[in-house]
Design goal:
It is a single chain. It contains 10 helices and 10 strands. By secondary structure, the chain is of the alpha/beta class. Strands 6-7-8-3-9-10 form a 6-stranded mixed β-sheet, sandwiched between helices. It has a 4-stranded antiparallel β-sheet with strand order 2-1-4-5, covered by helices on one side. A hairpin with a 2-residue loop joins strand 9 and strand 10. Helix 3 crosses helix 4, helix 3 packs parallel to helix 5 and helix 4 packs across helix 5. It binds adenosine-5'-diphosphate and magnesium ion (MG).
């Protein structure tokens, strides 16, 4: 959490009995959980269970059909458009396919949120972009265009753009899918490092439970619109739930997910 913001409650994000329906399809069905300030929380679950929907509710991109979503002590659905956009500046997003603009350099892409929101001098933007590039290991690459760099570098640049405003909450939607294991490990380590250095609450959606066991503070298993279980890596590793075991031993997964 950046120093100018102080939370009254220890929770950066909390869901109380959240229901989300699309037409007659009920995606989230009374979802309740909280993520503490500075905590790294991983969401795991089969495809189509509402993981991305959960992140979009936190980001204020969707509204709950019932129940309450609070982010940084504010009920998202109750905010005026101005307050919602102020809140969104404190929530960094790294979504699937969150592409960079091809006609701007990596440095220009990373500077975009600061430049768009205004009130920051050119010199300050340059300083923060340089700092963010260094933080993700791209100090030599700021002047390159997206077409000139590897997929892993694009991910890291998108990462730098997500943290440039020093958010209090950071949301990652499958940040390592499609990456080779070495790059996936690098991204996981980066998430952990940023989580610690920025004290941002991080919520990561992933299919990679083995990776999550290495770096999460807690892991939640989403199924049928609710968390089946939420626990520390230690607790999850020893879980007796068949769904959790299936994720730990994917060769048995057809038993659970057909
Ligand atoms: N804006 C939307 N309108 C209608 N249906 C949606 C919308 N967003 C998501 N859904 C549906 O909700 C379900 C959960 O989606 P999602 O959260 O993206 O799944 P996942 O757990 O794979 O991330 C899916 O069946 C999806 O088709
Ligand atoms: Mg998804």
């Amino acid at each position: 959490m950046s120093s100018e913001h102080k939370l009254d409650s220890p929770f950066a994000v909390s869901f109380d009995n959240v229901v989300k329906t699309f037409g007659d399809r009920r995606i989230l069905n009374g979802q309740t959980f909280s993520v503490k300030a500075g905590e790294l929380f991983v969401i795991i679950g089969p495809s189509g269970t509402g993981k991305s929907v959960t992140l979009k509710l936190i980001a204020g991109l969707l509204r709950p059909s019932a129940g309450t979503v609070k982010v940084l002590d504010q009920e998202v659905a109750a905010l005026s458009p101005q307050k919602l956009s102020a809140l969104r500046r404190r929530v960094g997003l790294l979504f699937q396919g969150g592409a960079l603009l091809g006609w701007k350099t990596l440095a220009e892409n990373i500077a975009l949120p600061l430049a768009e929101h205004g009130g920051v001098s050119r010199a300050e933007i340059d300083r923060r972009v340089t700092e963010a590039l260094a933080e993700v290991g791209l100090q030599e690459a700021g002047a390159l265009y997206p077409s000139e760099v590897s997929g892993g570098m694009l991910k890291r640049a998108a990462f730098a753009r997500a943290i440039i405003e020093n958010p209090d909450v950071l949301l990652f939607d499958e940040p390592t899918s499609g990456l080779d294991p070495v790059m996936a490990f690098t991204i996981d380590s980066l998430i952990r490092k940023i989580n610690r250095s920025h004290h941002a609450a991080c919520i990561v959606v992933t299919h990679d439970l083995v990776g999550a066991l290495r770096y999460a503070d807690r892991i939640g298993f989403l199924k049928n619109g609710q968390f089946l279980t939420i626990g520390t890596p230690e607790e999850i590793m020893h879980s007796e739930l068949p769904e959790v075991k299936a994720f730990l031993n994917p060769e048995h997964s057809e038993v659970v997910y057909g």
